[in-house]
User: Fold these one by one.
Assistant:
Number 1:
Amino acid sequence: MFVGSVEHPAGVDFVILVSMDWSAYVHPILGALVTGLVFALGNSGLRGRGSGRGARQFRQFHARLGPWVCAAALLAQASGILMVLSVRFDLSPASTMHFRSGTLLVCLLLLLFWSRSFMHLMIVRQLHPWVGALAMLVAGAHVFFGLQLIR
């Protein structure tokens, strides 16, 4: 376990209070969880469209899962930034496509969460599934960009 102050190449001093051996896996595990949740959320939203059998249950599940996916994505984003600052000294936080796609994914998920309040508007009801599909595409690209950073 490493406890102490570390000077980052960018000149930022910070304290690390975690074990370096397992902390490198926190962000990838959270990222895999978020990616799975994003696709589960999109699946339930797609299956909840219309008035078919079980559509109401899928819409309810979609509405309940959405805030948790947003929270998990924010946590994964924070863990990624902490990972770069504490372990990956060869990277700067905003220098990779992985960071940019993760930030875009978090923004899209927050936009989708925020749109819940405006579902009574027809334009929001029409755009919400398309923005959700875009979020799923960005999640897939995000995984691709993250795999390129593995060393």
Number 2:
Amino acid sequence: MKKHLKVIIIISIIIIGIMIKEVWAYFSDTSTVSGKIEITTGYTITTLEQSVNNEVITLKPKNSGQYAGYMRIKIFTPNSVKVELQSNENWEQRENGYIYYKDVISVGEDIPELKFKLNMDTDTLQEFNITVVNEMTKVSYQKDGTSYADWDKTLNVMD
């Protein structure tokens, strides 16, 4: 009887030892991963050919970025020079001074040129500079799938 008890105790200790090892392995298992992930934001950018001929500025914009987008342009001149939009095929001038292209501009797409007439008093005119600012923003989408331009969107980069 003592012999049977010793065998049962020995077998029980072996079984418990095996179970502890398995249970310990389950709860102490770890995995390690190393490497890096490259994140690119892409860009929207325009190229803008400009020419001036007989007081008419001609702008030929093109989407040369990586994404389709919306474009807007603003022209800064001295107070003595007024700018008048001449061609407006798909262009819309708004009260904030920007001229917006109404449609989405695909990558690589040339869009209709934009012409402006410079109105100035040539008798009192001196040499001056004109600054053209063109901006492009990536297309954003509403929940129903319609596209829109989000001119307030910014990219925050944290160290």
Number 3:
Amino acid sequence: MSDQDYPGVTCGEGWAAAELDDIGEGYGFRKLRKALDVQAFGINALVLPPGLATGKHYHEEQEETYIVIAGRFVIEFGDGQSCELGPGGAVRVNAETVRGIRNPSETDDLVYVCAGGKGGYVGRDGVLPPGEDRGVSPISPSSS
């Protein structure tokens, strides 16, 4: 990843972070995989204007999961069924399943994230670093 390609991305030792607006503007793709240097799976955010539909597609190998960030999301499947989801909604789709997405709103943009991969789940492999004794901690009120 080049800092010149995505100057709004903040990087550290083993991590990268950005707001979606740091990765692109207007409608279309926000290439999260490239901007954040994701290696293990594909991931993009997309912004669709009101009333727009993507073309139908399927994949040869990768399963996809879509997560709605803002707006209304309609996914139509090759078998004629569809689902409508709002912010926080998620749908998983097998590689070979035909799908198309549309924004049914007349006024609001649709923002969603799509992650895809193959090869299977690696299991729960989280490990506490030295000195940590629990995975969840209460947050202290800010002192400012």
